[in-house]
Amino acid sequence: MVSSKRFLLALALALTTLSGPSFPAAQDADSQSSNKSSSSLMVRRFALHYTGSFKKVSADEITQRLTQKGLFPVVEQPYDQAKLELIKNEIKRIYKEKGIAVIAESVLNSTNTPRYVEVFIEVYKQ
Q: Which domains are delineated in the chain?
């Protein structure tokens, strides 16, 4: 069951991005080894998904921090695995500052539009 806070965070992040339909051809973005093929991909949608019960940081705080660090926006930008790793590390750092140890894993989904992908970061408590 999706908590209301998780839903609101997902909704807030979705509103800051262009949404596109999701299809089940998911791959772990961490396992993407070919930078040549991913360099031609564009990000259609970016969102955080939370698993588990723990205090969530507001979407505004995360967005503000990522923007300050030059990591946001990522939508309608070329897919960049290195930038995604920096985003995941920054999310972990934000939570660590709040006293919560989390794990952040990325998921890359294809879309019905060629050359576009959806990027999700799955966040859960350690």
A: 4-125 (3.10.20.310)
